[in-house]
Amino acid sequence: MTHSPHLQTAMSQGQEETEVMIQYDTGDSSRNSAKAMAPSNPSESNALLKTVSLVLLTLQNAALILVMRYVRIRQGDMFMATTAVIVSEALKCLTALGIVFWEEKFSVKNWMKHLYNNIFSQPMDCINVSVPSLIYVLQNNLLYVAVSNLDAATFQVTYQLKILTTALFSVVMLKKQLSRLQWVSLVVLFIGVAIVQMQPDNTPAKAASTATTEVVQNPTLGLVAVIISCLMSGFAGVYFEKILKGTKQSVWVRNVQLGSLGGVIGLIAMYLKDGEKVAEKGFFFGYDYVVFIVIFIQAFGGLLVAVVVKYADNILKGFATSAAIIISCILSMYFFDFHVSFQFTCGASLVMASIYMYSKFVPVLSTKPTNA
To answer: Which residues span the membrane (predicted)?
Structure first.
């Protein structure tokens, strides 16, 4: 969602809940797997894995937003975002169930017993998990609203505000300490995003005039959706982090809970928002292979991060995010007729610098030796 708590950072949409859980899966199973997979030449292997991590993380961060933007503004029948969120949650749940099955050495009896002991026999725990699950479902729906109304590059930059919201909620709810330079980086991040929002507003209007879809381009609505989504991301991530600190369930069991509860909540949201349309046109109306690619990236992005981040660090994740912003800008110019303004260049540069600062200057926690 295999990290220590101080590595909490906000990453890309659709993978939020998985990333948070990665950072607290420090159980024996992870250590045993690491020992079993230990390379013969650790230094060379680690260097290669870090390089691969950077490439995969960058491509995942950029691809999700670019492809999501494409399927929301292209010509043709528009799929319903609420159904896509449900499919994504279902895929995450099924994948987590498969991983738990693998951890139990493919024993159906042990698998069922594990799920019963950690999920079904603890209804109050499921109620606690339902809070971030609800927020994540709403957030994922908001992301579709945002990316439908903001160009990919602007969305990619603005969405980094989740770093700010996560940091603030961590300080308030978890009493987390930030270094002075991290506080400075958060201010720089806010200023950078504000400057990006001051850029000339011509791309959204052009996109709206050339795309014959039901989506109405509204940059103000997109900005509001991003801000609310960032607030939800920050609160849900920190809230879930607080739950994980006091429980023994594994990261994948939590994925099962989040995915199953998210699917149920998603069905309710679909019924309230698109119930009549689904009944008339069908659940998979407007779907094609590109839509399934978006869902796949969104569903398995967090699982990819679970593997990638094992071999990376905070600075590497910061570089990957910055590189994704640059890729989004370049590709948006070619595919979405995005025009890079002076304001956008300045704002995006400040955002990328702030991400590096926030990842680099993590406060060092002093550890006092304890008597045996």
So the answer is: 47-67, 79-102, 157-174, 181-200, 220-240, 252-272, 284-309, 316-336, 342-359
- 334 located within any domain: yes
Is 175 inside a domain boundary? yes
Q: Is residue 335 part of a domain?
A: yes
Beta strands in 174-263 (DSSP E): none
Structural domain including 356 reads: 55-201+217-360
Where do we find the tokens 């308030």? 172
In tens, the pLDDT along 168-227 reads 999 999 888 889 999 999 999 999 999 998 876 644 444 444 444 445 678 899 999 999
pTM for the structure as a whole: 0.78
Under a CB-based contact definition with an 8 Å cutoff, are residues 355 and 322 in contact? yes
Q: Are 351 and 193 in contact (CB under 8 A)?
A: yes
Q: Kindly state whether residue 345 falls inside one of the protein's structural domains.
A: yes
In the structure, what pLDDT confidence band is assigned to residue 311 with cuts at 50, 70 and 90?
Answer: low
Cα distances (angstroms) measured from residue 360 to each of 54, 61, 283? 16, 20, 45
